[in-house]
Amino acid sequence: MDRLSGGDEDALGDLYERTSAKLFGICLRILHDREEAEDVLQDVYLSVWRRADRFDADRASPITWLATIARNRSIDRLRQIGRRGGDRPMNEAEDVADSSPDAFARLAQGDDGRRLATCLRELDERTQASILAAFYGGLTYEALAERLSVPLGTIKSRIRRGLIKLKGCLSQ
Question: Higher model confidence: residue 90 or residue 164?
């Protein structure tokens, strides 16, 4: 990330080579459309190129930071698609299998991940499941509320309170 923030184009190529399959999987899982996922992935790397100097290793690992950007950009694109009224079929999602660990599994392998897993276990089951579905499962708050048959405000409040508790636990 230091090389990247210094404008090293080779560093961007190395980063892309190491992370693109995982990030594409995140985008595709959220968008259910290969072309949209490819567009978002390109946008993610352009954003990373421009904002590499904002990466803070004390707050997250590089893959966690990248996965968060990919998730957020994918959700933004999903909302754009919805506003355009397009209903995208999930025609190619099954063809993309990624056998490597997902973002949560990779995060859990490190010290930060073990701390996060411990703090997540301290949350009540509904809050824990909601946070995992939203942040690691790629569900939007709206989709999660629909899946659980609860009001959108309830999901937002549950996740917000859970994130506050996680932040407190992780800062200890």
Answer: 164
**φ, ψ at 46 (rounded to 5°):** -65, -40
Distance CA 57, CA 62 (A): 7
Single pTM value for the model: 0.52
Encoded tokens for 75: 């959700």
Q: How far apart are CA 130 and CA 120, in angstroms?
A: 11
Domain boundaries, the chain: 1-89, 102-172
> Does 102-172 carry CATH code 3.40.190.10?
no
- Spatial contact of 100 and 132, defined as CB atoms under 8 Å apart: no
**Residues 130, 123 contacting (CB under 8 angstroms):** no
Fold of 1-89: Rna Polymerase Sigma Factor; Chain: A (1.10.1740)
Cα 44–chain centre separation: 11
Written as one letter, the residue type at 64 is T
- Residues 87, 46 contacting (CB under 8 angstroms): no
Give pLDDT tens digits for 22-79: 999 999 988 888 999 999 999 999 999 988 888 888 888 888 889 999 999 998 898 8
